[in-house]
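Dear colleague,

Thank you for sharing your sequence with our group. We've completed the structure prediction you requested, and as agreed, I am returning the results in plain text so they can be pasted directly into your records. Please verify that the sequence below matches your submission; if there's any discrepancy, let me know and we will rerun it promptly.
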Amino acid sequence: MKLYIEQKVFSIGDKFRIMDAEGQTRFTVEGQIFSLGKKLHIYDENHTEQAVLVQKLLTLLPKFELEVNGGQNCTISRKMALFHSAFETSYPQWKVTGNFTGHDYQFEGSNGTAASVHKKWMSWGDSYEVDIADEADALYVIGVVLAIDAVLEADNAAAASSASN
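Please find the predicted structure tokens below.
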């Protein structure tokens, strides 16, 4: 299953679409304006909430909780190594590695590659192509991609702030 997440700069009141290969909206993501930390709601094409991604505060490294309706919750954690970073999830148990700033990374689990993300140039604008091996994992993969984007956004904001000082 291939999905495309519109590339955009995160802003207050995030709202963007996730489309299928035919350009049809499969999900809509809306940010909650007044919340401590990042909070994103994922809706299906009928605007029924399917999942919520919530940033956990007061943690040493970024951590998010993905609450999927009718499914098991997933914790998404950034892991630091000496020369690179990676992300891990609690359910499904994936290790996510690759070039995060270049939007080229993979989800690896016990059954091999569960998903991959690549930057694509599409007719409707720049987007991330998310190739998901099992459609049942779609909301979990989307949640992890959104969490990684939120971490990158915070990293970029911190770098810009320190550069201006």
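Summary note from our side: The first helix runs from residue 138 to 164.

Kind regards,
the structure core
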